């Protein structure tokens, strides 16, 4: 692939009609694909290779604990799939070369006494009586049913995990 040819190929990459209308977000591809092609041009790559895609995806300007490396690899893989139909020498990186595992915070578990205190605080601190009763009831219902951000523990009864972040 001569210098600049990748840029032409990235511009002609077909976007299926209606993908955005179906909820697909192509923001990453729209932003990252020109950067990948520029990287290929800068190293003088004739075609997309697994090694070039991996080197670009794992550039050290992003934290490896963030999803950036995985997003970059997804864009490179999509472009390589497109190029494989045009250039038989294109290597399509296999899935799983770059992974991201989101680490979730340990939930804060409220005890029954904590839930009762939260309900009492809502009753005392909200000046409008109807709104105070509504919030107090909502907290109680969430704790009793295990819906939403509330979970039920077999050993301690209803527990509240706090708002979802």
Task: Provide a short characterization of the protein structure.
With 165 residues, this protein is mainly α.
Ranges where pLDDT stays below 50 over 5 or more residues in a row are 150-165
What's the overall average pLDDT, rounded?
Answer: 78
The H/E string reads HHHHHHEE
Largest sheet: 2 strands, antiparallel
Tally of separate domains? 2
User: Tell me, what's the shape?
Assistant: rod-shaped
Strand arrangement within the widest β-sheet reads 1-2
Percent of residues in β-strands: under 5%
Radius of gyration: 25 Å
* Helical amount: 40-55%
What structural class results from the helix and strand content? mainly alpha
Q: Give the end-to-end Cα distance, rounded to a whole number of Å.
A: 45 Å
Total of DSSP H or I helical runs spanning 4+ residues: 6
Beta strands, count: 2
């Amino acid at each position: 692939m001569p210098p600049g040819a990748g840029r032409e190929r990235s511009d002609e990459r077909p976007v299926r009609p209606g993908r955005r209308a179906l909820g697909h977000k192509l923001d990453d591809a729209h932003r990252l694909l020109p950067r990948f092609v520029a990287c290929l041009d800068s190293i003088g790559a004739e075609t997309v290779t697994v090694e070039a895609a991996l080197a670009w995806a794992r550039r050290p300007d992003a934290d490896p604990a963030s999803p950036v490396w995985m997003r970059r690899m997804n864009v490179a893989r999509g472009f390589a799939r497109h190029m494989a139909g045009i250039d038989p020498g294109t290597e399509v990186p296999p899935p799983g070369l770059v992974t991201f595992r989101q680490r979730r915070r340990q939930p804060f578990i409220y005890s029954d006494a904590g839930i009762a205190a939260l309900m009492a605080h809502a009753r005392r601190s909200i000046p409008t009586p109807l709104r105070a009763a509504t919030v107090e009831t909502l907290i109680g219902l969430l704790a009793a049913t295990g819906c939403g951000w509330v979970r039920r523990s077999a050993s301690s009864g209803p527990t509240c995990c706090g708002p979802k972040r």
